[in-house]
TrEMBL record:
<dbReference type="GO" id="GO:0016616">
    <property type="term" value="F:oxidoreductase activity, acting on the CH-OH group of donors, NAD or NADP as acceptor"/>
</dbReference>
<protein>
    <submittedName>
        <fullName>NAD(P)-binding protein</fullName>
    </submittedName>
</protein>
<comment type="similarity">
    <text>Belongs to the NAD(P)-dependent epimerase/dehydratase family. Dihydroflavonol-4-reductase subfamily.</text>
</comment>
<keyword id="KW-0560">Oxidoreductase</keyword>
<dbReference type="InterPro" id="IPR008030">
    <property type="entry name" value="NmrA-like"/>
</dbReference>
<dbReference type="Pfam" id="PF05368">
    <property type="entry name" value="NmrA"/>
</dbReference>
<dbReference type="InterPro" id="IPR036291">
    <property type="entry name" value="NAD(P)-bd_dom_sf"/>
</dbReference>
<dbReference type="InterPro" id="IPR050425">
    <property type="entry name" value="NAD(P)_dehydrat-like"/>
</dbReference>
<feature type="domain" description="NmrA-like">
    <location>
        <begin position="8"/>
        <end position="126"/>
    </location>
</feature>
Length: 340
C-alpha cells in the first residue's frame, strides 16, 4: 500500500493523552486532517486551544473530535474510523481491576478488527519498551545492540510462573502490564499475518517508546513527568528506578506520524528512544538550571547506572533526519511546562 500523503484523514485514539496530544500536533503540522477520539468534549476543546497556541490550523475541516468512551467497543471504533485512511493508537485501557492482561490484548485486537472493516490503510500501534526488555535486570545483553527482533520473554515467564506470594507484591503489576503488552503486540502481528491471503488488511507499524519527557500540552502531568517534579522538589523516590533510555515526547509524536508516510516503516517495530541516561546526568542538568531547588544528591554508580545497554535506533534516527531533541532541552522544556 502507498504511504499516507498529507491531506489524508487519520484517527488518533485517546488524543488528549500525553504522547497522543503531541502526535496530533505533529500530524496537523505534517498536513494531515485529524479526527481525535476523546472521552469528554470539554477536554477536546482544551486541546484545540492548546494546538491553536502552537500556531496550527484547528478549523473544523482540519481537526475534529468524536466520543469514544469504551476502548472495548468495536462499534465505537468502527464509527470513529469510518472514512479514514490511517489510525494511530496510543491509548491503553483502565489499568485497574481484574483480568488486566486480557483487557490489554482485547483493547489492541478490537480496534484492529474495526480498522479492517473501515478500510484503513496504515495502523500505528504504540507498544512499550518493557515488551522488549525489563530495565534493571542483569540479563540484558551489553555485548550487542538490542534490536526490534528482541522480546522480553523473561518478563513474560515471570508473570506466568509467579507464586501466590509474588502476586501480592505491588511490583507484580509491572509484570502483569508487561505480559499484557507482549501478548497484545504478538496478537497484533499475528492478526496482520493471518487475516488475508496475499496482501494484509493494512500495514502495521509498532512504536516502542522509552521514558517520555518534554513539555505537556494540557498540563496533566503523566507519571514520567511526576518523577521529574519529585526531583525538583527534592524527593529522591524516582532514583530507585533503573535508568534507561529517554525520548522527548515531541520526537515520539513525530515518529508516530512519520510511521504513516515512510515506506520503510511499514511492518516494523520502531524505537522511540534517543539516548541512554543515568540519574546523575539528569540531576546535573537540574542543578545547573535550578540552583535554588533542593535537587537530591547523586546516586552511586553501578553496573546498571548509568544505563549500560544500547539499542539499535538507526531506523528511527533516519526517519527523524538524523536529529533527536537533546536531553537538556527535553528536561528543561518539561520542567517549564510543570511551572518551574
Amino acid at each position: 500500500m502507498a504511504p499516507l500523503a498529507p491531506g489524508s484523514l487519520i484517527v488518533i485514539v485517546g488524543i488528549t493523552g500525553y504522547i497522543a496530544s503531541h502526535t496530533g500536533l505533529q500530524a496537523l503540522k505534517a498536513g494531515y486532517r485529524v479526527r481525535g477520539t476523546v472521552r469528554s468534549m470539554a477536554k477536546a476543546e482544551e486541546l484545540r486551544a492548546a494546538y491553536e497556541k502552537e500556531g496550527v490550523d484547528v478549523s473544523p475541516d482540519k481537526l475534529k473530535f468524536v466520543i469514544l468512551d469504551d476502548l472495548m467497543s468495536e462499534v465505537q471504533y468502527e464509527a470513529a474510523f469510518s472514512g479514514a485512511d490511517g489510525v494511530i493508537h496510543p491509548a491503553v485501557p483502565d489499568l485497574r481491576g481484574e483480568d488486566l492482561v486480557n483487557k490489554i490484548i482485547q483493547s489492541t485486537l478490537i480496534p484492529l478488527r474495526a480498522a479492517t472493516k473501515a478500510g484503513i490503510k496504515r495502523f500505528v500501534l504504540t507498544g512499550t519498551l518493557v515488551a522488549i526488555l525489563m530495565p534493571g535486570i542483569p540479563t540484558i545483553p551489553t555485548d550487542r545492540l538490542i534490536t526490534d527482533k528482541d522480546w522480553n520473554d523473561e518478563g513474560l515467564e515471570k508473570y506466568r510462573h509467579a507464586t501466590e506470594e509474588e502476586k501480592k507484591s505491588p511490583y507484580f503489576f509491572l509484570y502483569v502490564y508487561t505480559a499484557g503488552k507482549i501478548l497484545a503486540e504478538r496478537e497484533a502481528w499475528k492478526y496482520i499475518e493471518t487475516q488475508s491471503v496475499g496482501l494484509p488488511p493494512f500495514e502495521l507499524t509498532v512504536t516502542i517508546p522509552a521514558m517520555n519527557w518534554g513539555p505537556t500540552l494540557l498540563g496533566n502531568a503523566p507519571s514520567s513527568l511526576s518523577w521529574l517534579a519529585d526531583l525538583l522538589k527534592g524527593t529522591g523516590t524516582p532514583l530507585s528506578l533503573p535508568p534507561h533510555y529517554i525520548v522527548d515526547v515531541r520526537d515520539d509524536g513525530r515518529l508516530h506520524v512519520l510511521a504513516l508516510s515512510a515506506p520503510e516503516a511499514a511492518g516494523k517495530r520502531i524505537w522511540a528512544a534517543s539516548e541512554p541516561v543515568g540519574w546523575n546526568a539528569i540531576l546535573a542538568i537540574l542543578r545547573k538550571h535550578y540552583p535554588n531547588q533542593p535537587i537530591p544528591e547523586d546516586t552511586p554508580t553501578s553496573p546498571i547506572n548509568p544505563c549500560p545497554w544500547r539499542i539499535d535506533n538507526s531506523l528511527s534516527t533516519k526517519l527523524l533526519g538524523g536529529q533527536w531533541i537533546g536531553m537538556e532541552e527535553c528536561i528543561m522544556d518539561a520542567a517549564k511546562s510543570l511551572g518551574y
